[in-house]
Specification:
- The structure holds 2 protein chains of 2 kinds.
- Chain A is α+β, with helices and mostly antiparallel strands.
- Chain A has 17 helices and 11 strands.
- The longest helix of chain A has about 40 residues.
- The two termini of chain A are about 25 Å apart.
- The radius of gyration of chain B is 17 Å and the shape is globular.
- The chains are: A alpha+beta, B alpha/beta.
- At the A-B interface, helix 1, helix 12 and helix 17 of A face helix 2 and helix 3 of B.
């Protein structure tokens, strides 16, 4: 076997330029695969974090009747005693807060706004004192703004929404909504702060008001739409659910728990689709690289027909011919793999340390990921290993096509050929 | 040692049938230094290929060392060639990326001879064919005559029963050709190997102990000296 390795290795050096070009095609595909895989994994990780941090929390408690249609934003089927739930959760060491989502029509008037206008909006009443225990939105306040105060009519806007309607801190806005019993209610609010978070959904459409204020004007009578909890990002969802259940006394009578995966199912399915699409494109690039290897090996086979004839005349068996070609192709795979890993490492270093700012796209278009601007990658050692091994094995596998051709040729035809 | 009985071989070239061999029968003894001669298209290369088990007869029987090779399945012939036959080609057919040593050693590698033994045998034989000190040269750094010496060493290194040489001097000048023939003769005597070579060169014909003349696929004459 050693002589076959030597022969294959030396054959690689016959046409150095051709070998390098073919290996470069593999390296390009491999490097790009490592890079995109790193970026997608980073985007997913950051998106999941921003989804949990700004939209879903770790585990959410709904009233049992609400859990089936939690996506409908209304004041029906609220939790009647969220304070009791929060007290029990906090006693078990679990951070928790109440929130209530409702809809309304936002109305703004020229002076101070640039022009009159109205739009349908989704508002979220948050516990100004506890919300930061679960959601780090307060940390994303832009300079000059302040957080909500209990019972006051302040409103926090997502920075992109504020930009779209021309709102600034101190501007008055009006929201026409309905109380819990369905009566129209007009809320006169003052913009007290703008938030610019890592989550484009929050920046694009958030209006936060104080829960006590909402309770008063929407006649909630102490009820809330949901109680959200926070666990460390690295914790297991199943364990979190068990912890919440245990904190609630093991009995969830009248309540339902939804995890962040349940609440973010739309995002998770979108992310999976995007990754599948991206990998299909990468598979196409890898295919192009493999066609390159097949072509190189076919050329090698045709160029060496007479040598092949000589070796077969000497008694070289079919498996030895196959081995010599596959080892040679594997050699190209090794060179391409090493070059690809170097290229992939350089690109990954860039995407991890610097990142790519897609803010100009995301600002005006929802691409699904919960990232506002800079996409960053993560280092994935397993991708490097798998991609390197795959480049060698697949290179060897595709070389079987020209090798089969070589074995089909008659020895006498090989010996008669000009090459 | 070699018995050829009524061998026919026909090729299809386009729509034309070419009768390369028409019932050739021939017996060759061990250690013979035999030349198959004849003009182009007489069938000498076809006969050599059939004896060398790299081509098959349409009909007739070929027996080598008591083994009827025409009855061996195609996929088993490689093993027979590996064990029994050595080849020398007109255009040397050395592997350009391997050194003289590695080209010769390849024949023993195929037989899975231990590395230490390969080294001893190859270095010894390269010395005998006049290539001492040139073992690390690649074919491109050797003259035509030196390349053919490597090819002879490669054919003989495994001490085969038969060496088949297809016009071994055709690509060499007459002086080098004579040196190669001298070397082949010397090796024939040393190893007692059967040498069968095809040629249409008068000088080569004169060198052989036995001359078989082919014409239009039939044996025209068979003379021993």
């Amino acid at each position: 076997m050693k002589y076959l390795l030597i022969l294959s290795w030396k054959n690689l050096a016959r046409h150095t330029k051709r070998t390098v070009i073919t290996a470069s095609a593999i390296a390009f595909g491999l490097g790009l695969f490592i890079f995109v895989d790193s970026m997608l994994a980073g985007a997913e990780k950051d998106s999941e974090r921003n989804l949990i941090w700004y939209e879903t929390g770790s585990v959410r408690i709904y009233a049992e009747e609400k859990a089936d249609d939690w996506k409908k934003i209304n004041l029906k089927n609220l939790l009647e005693n969220p304070g009791d739930l929060i007290t029990r959760l906090e006693a078990a060491g679990i951070s928790a807060t109440r929130r209530t989502a409702f809809t309304g029509e936002l109305i703004v008037y020229q002076d101070p706004f640039p022009e009159d206008g109205s739009m349908q909006v989704r508002l979220m009443a948050v516990d100004s004192l506890r919300d930061a225990n679960v959601y780090p939105v307060e940390n994303a306040l832009e300079e000059g703004g302040t957080w909500l105060q209990p019972g006051e009519n302040g409103v926090i806007l997502g920075s992109w929404l504020a930009d779209d309607i021309g709102a600034k801190v101190g501007y008055p806005i009006t929201v026409v909504t309905r109380t819990r019993d369905g009566a129209f209610q007009t809320l006169d609010l003052e913009v007290v702060g703008l938030v610019n978070t890592g989550n484009p959904v929050i920046n694009r459409g958030t209006l936060l008001v104080d829960h006590d204020f909402a309770d008063t004007y929407l006649l909630l009578e102490g009820a809330a739409g949901q109680v959200d909890t926070a666990f460390p990002l690295t914790s297991e969802t199943g364990e979190n659910v068990a912890a919440v259940s245990a904190a609630l006394g093991g009995s969830l009578a009248g309540h339902e728990l939804l995890t962040w995966e349940d609440l973010g199912a739309d995002y998770l399915s979108l992310a999976a689709t995007k990754q599948g699409g991206a990998k299909s494109i990468l598979a196409l690039m890898v295919l192009i690289a493999l066609v390159g290897i097949t072509n190189t090996m076919l050329m090698a086979m045709y160029e060496r027909r007479r040598e092949l004839g000589m070796m077969r005349a000497m008694g070289m068996k079919s498996w030895e011919i196959v081995a010599s070609f596959t080892l040679e192709a594997g050699g190209i795979g090794v060179i391409g793999g090493v070059m690809g890993m170097i290229l992939g490492a350089l690109l990954t270093w860039f995407i991890v340390d610097v990142g790519i700012d897609f803010g100009f796209i995301i600002r005006d278009m929802d691409i699904g990921y919960r990232i506002s601007s800079v996409f960053r990658g993560i280092w994935k050692a397993d991708t490097f290993v798998v991609a390197f091994i795959a480049s060698i094995l697949v290179s060897m596998a595709v070389s079987l096509i020209p090798t089969r051709q070589a074995l089909k040729m008659k020895v006498t035809d090989c010996l008669r050929s000009d090459t | 040692m070699i018995s050829i009985n009524g061998v026919h071989r026909t090729y299809q070239t386009g729509e034309t049938e070419v009768h390369a061999l028409r019932g050739v029968s021939l017996d060759i003894e061990q250690g013979e230094f035999l030349s198959i001669a004849g003009p182009s298209g007489s069938g000498k290369t076809t006969l050599l290929n059939i004896i060398g088990c790299i081509d098959t007869a349409d009909s007739g029987k070929v027996t080598i060392d008591g083994v009827e090779v025409t009855a061996i399945p195609h996929n088993k012939l490689a093993g027979f060639r590996r064990d029994k036959l050595g080849f020398i080609f007109q255009s040397f057919n050395l592997i350009p990326v391997l050194t003289a040593y590695e080209n010769v050693a390849l024949a023993l590698n195929l037989l899975q001879v231990p590395e230490k033994e390969i080294k001893e045998r190859v270095m010894g034989l390269l010395g005998e064919v006049g290539l001492a000190g040139m073992e690390n040269r690649r074919p491109s750094k050797l003259s035509g005559g030196q390349q053919q010496r490597v090819a002879i060493a490669r054919a003989l290194i495994k001490e085969p029963a038969i060496v088949l040489a297809d016009e071994p001097t055709a690509n060499l000048d007459s002086e080098t050709g004579k040196e190669i023939l001298d070397l082949m003769k010397k090796m024939d005597e040393k190893f007692e190997t059967t040498f069968i070579f095809s040629t249409h060169d008068k000088m080569v014909m004169d060198f052989a102990d036995r001359l078989v003349m082919l014409h239009d696929g039939e044996i025209q004459s068979d003379k021993r000296r």
